[in-house]
């Protein structure tokens, strides 16, 4: 666990970058620091590995003040990832990743072996190992940056806007891969971004900072969206807060109808119904038909029942002229159909809190 205890950073010119910051970044979780430019995110992060020293207050790593640990020792246990990866341009990818193992005195073979293992872990082809950073795309470089930070298997990972220099599609992929990696590695991660959507997607907890380095709110993403502490946080969260909150509302318990399906080329369903869902032999959805009339199959949208959020269920409903969304299981088999009425009910419940 990383603890900030009343930490202030005043630079020699008098700038107060961080002001009386108290927060905890729990072990094995992702804590995101988010806020506008200049609010002290980078400064806060760098005080953890002592690239910057705090002026007042204490930062503790599992209860031990970082000020009492020599920086080289401290940094051995802390991986650091920055924007544009910051790779060494004249070193091959494999040697970039092996930077810390080399510093730790590992022999070349072992260090490179570890680097190759990490290359795979972050989803990169082994063939890239012999290239130089300029021969990689921005997204690939960013992955190498993550691999390098993980090389000595540090328990703590500091990430400063690591994905902000890549396009939105690559960024989404990198975010998902970070979550996948984290589910395997359980690092204590402090992640800095100015993008609130990224914060909400990645954070177990999100700390919103305001300019002047003051903590505005520290909460789980869901709480942040439903109960912003003041106007600053509300504005920072943006306008479609309500819709985004549905990401955190489960589809578990959503009322489903099972009498609206009909076997492909077979029996079932009532011709009284305005829409019927055609399913194939394996129970997978094929398309909607209007009433029991054979004819055009209309498009459908699915969500994983109990696992996907209400936002996905609603999205699935909007993809189909039937206005219903199709609940499926892990194998893609239809579990049932959420009608507009059922979705309405669930939305009303969500609005109630
Ligand atoms: N060495 C320094 N001397 C004086 N002021 C500094 C120094 N480094 C940073 N600052 C100031 O401290 C404040 C916080 O800077 P910091 O880099 O932590 O912000 P940030 O939240 O990371 O911003 P960004 O989103 O733009 O990266 C800013 O006002 C910045 O100008
Ligand atoms: Mg910064």
Automatic annotation (TrEMBL):
One GO MF term: ATP hydrolysis activity
Primary enzyme class: translocase
InterPro entries: AAA+_ATPase, ABC_transporter-like_ATP-bd, ABC_transporter-like_CS, P-loop_NTPase
Domain ABC transporter: 2-236
Pfam family, one: ABC_tran
Keyword presence, Signal: no
Protein species of origin: Nonomuraea longispora
UniProtKB keywords: ATP-binding, Nucleotide-binding, Transport
EC number: 7.6.2.9
Protein name: ABC-type quaternary amine transporter
């Amino acid at each position: 666990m990383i603890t900030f205890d009343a930490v202030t950073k005043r630079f020699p010119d008098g700038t107060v970058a961080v002001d009386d910051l108290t927060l905890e970044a729990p072990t094995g979780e992702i804590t995101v620091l988010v806020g506008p430019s200049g609010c002290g995110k980078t400064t806060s992060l760098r005080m953890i590995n002592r690239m910057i020293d705090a002026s007042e207050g204490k930062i503790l790593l599992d209860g031990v003040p970082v000020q009492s640990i020599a920086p080289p020792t401290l940094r051995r246990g802390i991986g650091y990832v920055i924007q544009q990866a910051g790779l060494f341009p004249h070193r091959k990818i494999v040697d970039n990743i092996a930077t810390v193992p080399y510093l730790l005195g590992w022999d070349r073979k072992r260090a490179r072996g570890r680097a190759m293992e990490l290359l795979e872990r972050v989803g990169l082809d082994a063939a890239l190992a012999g290239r130089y950073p300029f021969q990689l795309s921005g997204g690939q470089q960013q992955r190498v940056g993550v691999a390098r930070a993980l090389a000595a298997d540090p328990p703590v990972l500091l990430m400063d806007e690591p994905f902000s220099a890549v396009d939105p599609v690559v960024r989404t992929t990198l975010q998902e891969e970070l979550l996948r990696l984290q589910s395997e590695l359980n690092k204590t991660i402090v992640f800095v971004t100015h993008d609130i959507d990224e914060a909400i997607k990645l954070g177990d907890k999100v700390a919103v900072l305001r300019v002047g380095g003051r903590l505005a709110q520290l909460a789980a993403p869901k709480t942040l969206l439903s109960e912003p502490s003041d106007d600053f946080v509300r504005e920072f969260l943006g306008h479609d807060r309500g819709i985004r909150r549905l990401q955190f509302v489960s589809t578990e318990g959503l009322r489903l109808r099972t009498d609206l399906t009909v076997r492909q080329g077979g029996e079932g369903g009532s011709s009284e119904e305005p829409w019927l869902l055609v399913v194939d032999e394996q129970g997978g959805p094929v398309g909607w038909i209007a009433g029991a009339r054979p004819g055009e199959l209309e498009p459908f949208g699915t969500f994983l029942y109990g696992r996907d959020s209400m936002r996905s269920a609603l999205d699935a409903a909007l993809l189909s002229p039937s206005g219903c969304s199709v609940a499926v299981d892990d194998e893609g088999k239809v579990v049932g159909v959420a009608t507009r009425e059922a979705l309405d009910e669930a939305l009303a419940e969500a609005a109630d809190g």
